[in-house]
Amino acid sequence: MKKDIRQNTLPQLTEYFLSKGEKAFRAKQVYEWLWEKSAVTFDEMTNLSKSLRDSLQEEFEIRPIRVDNSQHSNDGTIKSAFRLYDEELVEGVLIPADDRMTACVSSQVGCSLTCKFCATGYMDRKRNLEAGEIYDQVVAIDRQAKASFDQPLSNIVYMGMGEPLLNYKNVLDSIDRITAPDGLNMSPKRITVSTAGIAKMIKKLADDEVKFNLALSLHAADDKKRDQIMPINESNTLEALKEALQYFYKKTKNRITFEYILFYNFNDTLEDAEKLWMFTKQIPSRVNIIEYNPIAEADFQNTEEDRLEKFANFLSKNGVNVHVRRSRGKDIDAACGQLANKTKSA
Asked: Is the pTM of this model over 0.90?
């Protein structure tokens, strides 16, 4: 199999061209085509000679994703199934709003964490996505935003299929290409990586002094309840996560976002709200309360509106920066926790 040229760094490409007797600047030209101009074939690289393009074609390949099909929600949300070079599928979502265009991208084919409320958690993890495959989702969704809403992407959330911190290098490499001046040149402050909570990897993010935002899928502020719905908590307890998040904030000065789905009669009482408040007091943070989006594999129900209101009001009155996030794209299984490769042609 030919090598994927996008797995080479600029210094590696420079070394390659020099070894072939070419000028070093050829590497920068190719790199620009790959990451600034999002070229998917060598023939697009028109400032290279035909012989050089043919030579690259013989030795390398570009492995772009392609939109297999898309669905359009009544609220404007667009969910796409992306076909990878090896014929695997992942899903990504464009979430339009008045003040922003957000891409929700996947980092793995499937997931290994088995969270009980998440459709992806009931799939097997097939493999990690390469940095280029994550980057391609952003490019494709940006094109959808421009075509459908005449606006470019403003935000990116790594909240699609998979656990980003279990694909650490490729996720960070993709963010590097998305934010670099010789890439898509987006601000890291417009990017949020969401994790189910892997303490040692959160500390690694801190040591790497990342500039993007971090969100933690919390969903319960006591270990007993969190163990029931998120098996990862058994090896990454709330105490371990608290220490890791405090370390992350100390190193980066970035506030944490806690994501909290309210399940009816499980984690939606005022006692649960108080436990969440006590946990958030220990770390500079904000809380996103999220509606539950039912899936066929689980019996959870969304909480009632009055319980949600009391829960949010309790947090707000106690000084928590809280936002109730209404689901988008529920009618096409594009909402939080619903991605499971069920996209149909629209």
From this structure: yes
